[in-house]
Amino acid sequence: MISPPRRAIAYPDREVDCQEAMEPGFQAIVDCMLDVGWARGEVMRTLRRLIAADNMTQKENARVEAELAIARAMIRARK
After folding, report:
1. What's the angle, vertex CA 33, arms to CA 31 and CA 25, rounded to 5?
2. pLDDT band at 13, cuts 50/70/90?
3. Which of 18, 28, 66, 69 is 20 to 30 A off residue 37, Cα-Cα?
4. Where are the alpha helices (DSSP H) in 1-79?
5. Whole-prediction pTM value?
6. How far apart, in Å, are the Cα atoms of 2 and each of 6, 61, 63, 64?
7. Separation between Cα atoms, residue 16 and residue 14, nearest integer Å
């Protein structure tokens, strides 16, 4: 079971709590990858690439959402 944040709003050590909540699952993924034959370096590099890809996806989604909001506003302004 993953522990939720202690509060819904920002608080000191929230990221530390997130890290502690994520650690067992992270370690389980790494252990499973190593058990089937992947090298630790490969696993860590791939995790970094997955994080980078997710960041790029989030930025692109935000850009598209902003463009859609502008387009909607322009359409509303013409009515």
Report:
1. 50
2. very high
3. 18
4. 14-35, 40-78
5. 0.74
6. 12, 27, 31, 32
7. 5
